Amino acid sequence: MANESFSRKDFLKKVSLFGMVAAGSSAVLTACGGGASTDTGTSEPAAQEPAAAADPCEDLTGLADSDKQMRTTLAYVKEGEDPAKRCDNCQLYVAPAEGSSCGGCTLFKGPVHPQGYCNSWVAKMS
Ligand code: SF4
User: Fold this and answer.
1) How many CB atoms lie within 10 A of CB 93?
2) Mean pLDDT of 71-91
3) Residues 114, 94: Cα–Cα separation, whole Å
4) pLDDT one-digit tens code per residue, 21-62
5) Which residue of 25, 84, 88, 102 pairs with 111 in a disulfide if CB–CB is 3.0 to 4.6 A?
């Protein structure tokens, strides 16, 4: 019986020790960022798309992925390297609506910089 009592006591000590080790490990993991997330969802997202308001000609809000992909496929850039080849002197350019600085393109949806360029540029016929 004494031996059994000792075993129970020994068992309780080990359980207590294990509990302290587990709690300490959890604290270390949490401090290192490896523990379970304690994020309550109230913080700001880490990464967001660039603010569209900064440049209205970069605002692709509401465009389908296929429209966005077309811009990439045509290698559209907001400012071309050759000043003689710009969207605003391209046959496919759509002039900006009144009050807007961004035009459009007949090849894809969304705003286009007047000084932009893509690999489908074609000289505007006069
Ligand atoms: Fe600009 Fe290319 Fe469209 Fe011409 S075809 S307006 S260069 S995006």
Assistant:
1) 20
2) 97
3) 9
4) 344 333 333 333 333 334 444 445 545 555 545 889 999 999
5) 102
What size, in residues, is the chain?
126
Structure tokens at 73: 């496929």
C-alpha 36/C-alpha 49 separation (Å) is: 27
Please tell me if the CB atom of residue 117 comes closer than 6 angstroms to any atom of ligand 1. Answer: yes
The number of the ligand 1 atom at minimal distance from the alpha carbon of 105 is 3
Phi then psi for 64, rounded to 5 degrees?
Answer: -70, 155
Would you state the structure tokens that stand for residue 75, as one six-digit string?
């290698």
Ligand 1 centroid – CA 126 distance (Å) = 17
Residue whose Cα lies nearest atom 8 of ligand 1: it is 118
Write out the two tokens for 90: 């391209």
Measured in degrees and rounded to the nearest 5, phi and psi for residue 13 equal -65, -45
